[in-house]
């Protein structure tokens, strides 16, 4: 097995990826001429351990599902949450450069985001058109950040560990984790300056194969989690943004620009029907919900105690 590369004491950020036998993480570090501001660590679930020995920190083998494995990782290594300012948890089927990770961390720090993600390129497989790249923006503030490419302020990720432990499929957690903080407005964003490509068709990874074997539906997790809140979000919104030139725009303009772009390029996307429909809905919301801002979620009295502890 390959030797571990020593982590750099001056690196303030960590990329922790669940890596399988077909992981693309090698492309993230292929260009050794790039000065990275982040360390790489792999939390591996594949069968061939020789494929996952490229990290700066020692590889951890854990063949659970994504988020319960990630939660165990930080429970067993709490020092990581103190050592690094931000931690990204990308899926292993994302194609991106080391510069891309650099900029995600730099922008998240500049705007003091608690949750963020890079935008998805036009040719990506995707479930949620809201995270598709919109040219002309540096970032769009959003009440939704997808689990596929999420990045967290470490202190906030520490608070979210009970959520990850209790919803192992990951479905539903990305619908709420931008709103479990006090004053959630302008604390989460899709970063359009950075694009990544999701290379695997949706619902085809090892998690979904396991769920099919167990005859489980991840949609049950979504319903169960939403039922714990009085004001669970019913829609995905962008509610403000920063343009590439640094100018800030309000929710109405952000939605108008976002909608116009989706309607223009929807036919080029693998999920074109979904993209077109969401673009049309967003056009309506730019008028009817132009003042939307996210609100802190309110647990019901029936919510479990561990969930109450998030607030």
Can you walk me through this structure?
This protein is of the alpha/beta class. It contains 11 helices and 11 strands. Strands 1, 2, 3, 4, 5, 6, 7, 8, 9, 10 and 11 form an 11-stranded mixed beta sheet that branches. Strand 1 (13-19), helix 1 (25-28) and strand 2 (38-44) form a beta-alpha-beta unit. The mean pLDDT is 92.
Keywords:
globular; eleven-stranded mixed β-sheet; alpha/beta; 311 residues
Short summary:
This protein is of the alpha/beta class and 311 residues long.
Mind sketching the topology for me?
Layout: E1 13-19, H1 25-28, E2 38-44, E3 60-61, H2 66-76, H3 79-83, E4 86-90, E5 94-95, H4 98-110, E6 115-120, E7 137-142, E8 149-153, H5 154-166, H6 173-176, E9 188-198, H7 206-214, H8 219-226, E10 238-243, E11 248-250, H9 251-265, H10 272-288, H11 305-308
Helix pairs in contact: 2-5, 9-10
Roughly what percent helix?
Answer: 25-40%
**How many strands?**
11
- The mean pLDDT is 92
- CA radius of gyration is 19 Å
Our count of helices gives 11
Structural class: alpha/beta
In what range is the share of β-strand residues? 15-25%
Straight-line N-to-C gap: 44 Å
Query: Which runs of at least 5 residues are low in confidence (pLDDT < 50)?
Result: none
Globally, the shape reads globular
The helix/strand series, from N terminus to C terminus, equals EHEEHHEEHEEEHHEHHEEHHH
Largest sheet: 11 strands, mixed
